[in-house]
Fold this sequence. Notes:
Elements: E1 5-7, H1 17-23, E2 43-48, E3 50-57, E4 71-78, E5 85-97, E6 108-115, E7 120-130, E8 134-142, E9 145-160, E10 163-170, E11 181-187, E12 194-201, E13 210-212, E14 219-225
Amino acid sequence: xxxxxxxxxxxxxxxxxxxxxxxxxxxxxxxxxxxxxxxxxxxxxxxxxxxxxxxxxxxxxxxxxxxxxxxxxxxxxxxxxxxxxxxxxxxxxxxxxxxxxxxxxxxxxxxxxxxxxxxxxxxxxxxxxxxxxxxxxxxxxxxxxxxxxxxxxxxxxxxxxxxxxxxxxxxxxxxxxxxxxxxxxxxxxxxxxxxxxxxxxxxxxxxxxxxxxxxxxxxxxxxxxxxxxxxxxxxx
Length: 236
């Protein structure tokens, strides 16, 4: 199998199998990463800004992938000195290739996995058919299409203790009227809560995971650090 990626140098690339086996990515030669800043919304346990270098399809109905599916997962760590983190909101960057026509209604699935020796393991939290709270054209063009910032609010917070996890995110463009596929844009790894590399699978949701040590994705995980319960005392 081969992972299908996008590049600013090569508008669309289906890598030969030998190249895919080696790196699962399109060369970034002459396309340096862009340093972009993003605002933190509340508490954040992962903060990876988009870098405009490349993108990878994460779509349950990926026509270009030769499908039917290609999905992605990004790893992250929760560090709260033992308090825990309630994941409530996900912000991602990406777009629709190649007709550049957004879905009338997006259909995102989000799954949080535990980690097993550096690969996604058991599913801890799942939310399906998420309609974005907001989807905004940023004004940045990638591969000849528009970049969108998408906010996904979870109906039920995913409570996470300190540790390492994976977040799997993919869209389903099957309801679209064109051959667009959703791609997740690459981002600069968070030096505190991020870990270099990601994972991909060729079914939705992902089951048989493959690791890509070179690519990280633009995503922000927002929520609430669980406060420590204070006990009151009275003096007689």
